[in-house]
Amino acid sequence: MSKAKAFMQRKNIEISLKRYGIDALGAMAQGLFCSLLIGTILKTLGSQTGVEIFTTVGSYAGAMSGPAMAIAIGWALKCPPLVLFSLTAVGWASNELGGAGGPLAVLFVAIIAAEIGKVVSKETPIDVLVTPLVTIFVGVALAALIAPPIGAAANYVGTLIVEATKLQPFWMGVVVSALVGIALTLPISSAAICHSFGLVGLAGGAAVAGCCANMVGFAVMSFRENRWGGLVSQGLGTSMLQMGNIVRNPKIWIPAIVTSMITGPIAT
């Protein structure tokens, strides 16, 4: 047992909620921000101003969200270079196969692939071949196995949202706003869910209210600690940046959820 513990310490493998649920999850949110969300902002600028270069650059940035998240996770886990670079393919496969649950699939798969890659790193004379091969093979194979079910689970959230649209407008606003706000903050693609199920009209208004309650709510609540950078990144980007803090203290999510339940009916 002591040998296994010493080996894990030598490989910098730490199985803990802090390492995976706070450090890795927080880094993944930053990777998503630096790819998909920046890309979305640029594409929006392009469509509003008619400047095509913004749209082009934004499309390329958004397409790299999977690799960006996986590399960010690897960085948080302190992966050796060959493992870190190999996570590019792992992230792309996980995000593509995960559908609406792509970010969550990337989180699980990248963590496992990274840790296994760290186990074999620098253990053979042909490390430059073995480490990338093991990391990529394990990661992509695992993505093919678990990413589709994760995507199906994320779509189930979308099904709940659609069922909520059948309620009376007031209660529909409460439920849709709360669920979409929660989906926005969780490591799943709320945009993909809303697009797939065609949330428009009153339901679309409630969805927007839920998103705003979480994004603006966390941006304002954390202003004292994060100042203007946090205000902009969360207010214009995503409240997913707070997932690490939510794991550490779930109570901080309550004000945003309650606010979304209040603003949802107003929006409808």
From TrEMBL:
The chain crosses the membrane at residues 20-41, 97-116, 136-158, 170-193, 199-221. GO terms for biological process: phosphoenolpyruvate-dependent sugar phosphotransferase system. Keywords: Cell membrane, Membrane, Sugar transport, Transmembrane, Transmembrane helix, Transport. Residues 23-268 form the Phosphotransferase system EIIC domain. GO terms for cellular component: plasma membrane. InterPro entries: PTS_EIIC. This is PTS sugar transporter subunit IIC.
